[in-house]
Amino acid sequence: MRGLTKGREFQLWEYDVSHGSLLVRSPAGPGLATSIDIICVGVEYIAAPRHLGQITVSEARQSELDHLERILQKKLSRSRVWALEGSSERFLVVAAGLRVREHGDDIFDSPFADPRALYRATAVQQRPNAETRLIRVLQEPNIGLDTIAVVADGISIDAKFNLWVLNVAKNTFSTDQMIDLLEKIDPLHSRCCAAAEQFLKDRDTEHLKAVVRQYIELLSEITASNRGSLP
Description:
Radius of gyration: 19 Å
Oligomer: single chain
Helix content: 40-55%
Largest sheet: 5 strands, antiparallel
Strand order of the largest sheet: 5-1-2-3-9
Structural class: alpha+beta
Strand content: 15-25%
Number of helices: 7
Number of domains: 2
Order of helices and strands: HEEEEEEHEEEHHHHH
């Protein structure tokens, strides 16, 4: 993300109130062949001036997360909070998904015109990758066969679920449905990633297996209730 935004001037460009969709853009112009977009969907909170200047996208600090939880009066997943970091200020965003992209489209084109096109560029890809973290667990020496079996099932269901999102959900779900889907998955997906990372530190296999089983159950339930079983 830092590479794409480096040296570019950004401004708040578009906001869709009904869907909470936010576009922060550095438009193409003289000497700049492409535009850089920071696309946020399912926005719950934004505090920023119209003209942001040069910024990078970074994770929120714990103090910022605590501050936002007091404002919104609810617990927030760290994976849903970003900071648009300028030279002297950090502007906070709470959203279901965020993506930075470079493109050569007209500067007045909107990524929100087609919800399916929007979700090909955003959302699920911004979550931490459970599959990668679980694979790291399998690479550890001396883990039990029962742990291997559960973790392998978790990797399989995560991969199949991502295929289902790409081939089914993104082509049939409305914007609101996609946002609801992300909000339902995000807390447990983050717990699964955290449990895998924690296992690498303390080898707590029981906690890891319990969380991965819950993750498997949730993904299976979502796909079964929306569009049949997983592929």
